[in-house]
Amino acid sequence: MSTCYANPSPSFQPAMRLIASISNGKPAVVTTTFDHDYESGLIVRLNLPTAVGMQQADKLTGTITVTGLTTFTINIDTTSFDAFSIPVAPAWNDNTCAMVIPIGESNDILRLATQNVL
Questions:
Q1: Are 115 and 67 in contact (CB under 8 A)?
Q2: Residue 13 CB coordination number (10 Å)
Q3: What is the pLDDT of residues 3-56, one digit of tens each?
Q4: pLDDT value of residue 21
Q5: Cα–Cα dist 76/47, whole Å
Q6: Whether 79 contacts 26, CB under 8 Å
Q7: Is there a contact between 63 and 42 (Cβ–Cβ < 8 Å)?
Q8: Which conformational region is residue 41 in: left (phi greater than 0), alpha (psi within -120 to 50 degrees), or beta?
Q9: Residue 9 to residue 89: CA distance in whole angstroms
Q10: CB contact burial 68-81 (16+ within 10 A = b; e otherwise)
Q11: How many Å apart are CA 42 and CA 57, to the nearest integer?
Q12: Among the four residues 34, 71, 78, 106, which has the most C-beta atoms within 10 Å?
């Protein structure tokens, strides 16, 4: 069985976060497994292994709007996508580590690019 791990206090921000759920909606609501520390305007990529479904969203990028400590919306329309679901009992070789990975930010804010946590 695969084990997913993400450092809640990484040396570099913004950091990759594990995804607990993604809604089928417009915009989609993404929930992370712990506080994401993201800011609205961040551009992220979704990395979704086949075991969690919603393969139509795999590798898509979008701009987020933070709605809570562990939630944000992303400007991707997932209404017609397959459901996202982490298997309760995955096969031993199934990768269930769904991730959201920051890749940039709107150039009108540029706050996260200058954040130093070292």
A1: no
A2: 16
A3: 787 877 777 767 899 999 999 999 999 999 999 989 898 999 999 999 999 999
A4: 97
A5: 14
A6: yes
A7: yes
A8: left
A9: 29
A10: eeebbbbebebeeb
A11: 17
A12: 78
Residue 43 host element (H or E): strand 42-47
Neighbours of 25 (CB within 10 A): 13
Contacts 24+ apart (CB under 8 A), 82-89: 82/53, 82/54, 82/55, 82/56, 83/24, 83/53, 83/54, 84/19, 84/21, 84/22, 84/23, 84/24, 84/48, 84/52, 84/53, 84/54, 84/57, 85/52, 85/53, 86/20, 86/51, 86/52, 87/51, 87/52
CA separation for the pair 112, 107 (Å, rounded): 10
Tokens of 87: 């298997």
The answer to whether the pTM exceeds 0.90 is no
Place of tokens 């269930």: 96
- Tell me phi and psi for residue 104, to 5 degrees: 170, -170
